[in-house]
Amino acid sequence: MNHSIEKCIEACLECMNACNVCYVASLKEYELEMLRECIRLDRECAEICSYTAQALGRGTEFAADICALCARICEACAAECGKHQHEHCQQCAEACRRCAEACRIMAVA
Amino acid sequence: MNHSIEKCIEACLECMNACNVCYVASLKEYELEMLRECIRLDRECAEICSYTAQALGRGTEFAADICALCARICEACAAECGKHQHEHCQQCAEACRRCAEACRIMAVA
Amino acid sequence: MNHSIEKCIEACLECMNACNVCYVASLKEYELEMLRECIRLDRECAEICSYTAQALGRGTEFAADICALCARICEACAAECGKHQHEHCQQCAEACRRCAEACRIMAVA
Amino acid sequence: MNHSIEKCIEACLECMNACNVCYVASLKEYELEMLRECIRLDRECAEICSYTAQALGRGTEFAADICALCARICEACAAECGKHQHEHCQQCAEACRRCAEACRIMAVA
């Protein structure tokens, strides 16, 4: 497996974990109303990252298209989570940005 | 949920099932060598169909992009399975074509 | 594929859909605070149902154990959703109960 | 998130990757006939590991049952892959064993 693919799988799995941590923590927050979109996009992003990591791991020939989609969803999640000051939101936004970058490299490969 | 989305979820789940049935049956066939690509694409297609059905079910705003990707993978699986005369391959190819059509409608919606 | 497996796959996919519909609708409800557990279990249940449907579809030899787990999660989701009067919660609870029944049959098979 | 859960997520994701690598490589091997069960169990194991990693990541209360199931499937995959001398099979068997151990700890926690 080449280095870009390995880095991308790793970034996807870290992003998936950060999204799931943020999802659970957001569902417990006092100001739940403000976090509706955050919760929704955390799941959205965790699911595509999980799918992408597995697809890359099994050597899919659709890597470019899959990674372009994954990057787009990661960017949307980063934008939403980035609005909130909770540490889990900020960490999630950061993981989403790193994953989007790794996916953009794969998308044009 | 609107009618096109419901039809597309249904087509994805039927395609997922047909791909999984074809996958298991192919792995048991005597002429295994000829079915390498069929087995590989059956899994590839089952996974994207499963992902797409769930994403549509939770009202994703990325439906057009997800369905475009799903259609592309379904078409690749239909092309491969369509080459083989096993009944499970022919039925899978048919389900893939129907799913690709339903996804193409969503992709331009 | 035998009849019990087919019925169980169908029940899992209907439950997955009902959970995803309830999940999205719950995230938009005015009384969000009361639905934290409902939202969380909707996702939990949708994920295990999706996994179980695919595993059964590919003829897993672990069907009994997988279905026992799926039944348990469906029952937990039915119990939570059953507490709420929203139509999506009631419909979800009903789908979860049907899926749990179908899974219990597989679990002792 | 406590240390055992983190270790278990990590072991699941490493096992998922090893299973997917072994799956792809096995599908390309000359002696395909002998690898039917290996290919089948690689997918089976990758799917449960992926599911388990996400479930643990979102703090599921069903961790003990999920990890018991995951351990059982990892052990079956380790037993099968361990029979074959291909490096990808041996590495996969090793990852499966480590994951089974991490899951057994969670299963009795």
UniProtKB/TrEMBL annotation, chains A, B, C, D:
* Protein origin, superkingdom: Bacteria
InterPro entries, from UniProt? Answer: Csp_YhjQ (IPR005560), YHJQ-like (IPR044543)
PANTHER family assigned: CYTOPLASMIC PROTEIN, CYTOPLASMIC PROTEIN-RELATED
Which named protein is this?
Four-helix bundle copper-binding protein
Q: Which organism is it from?
A: Paenibacillus terreus
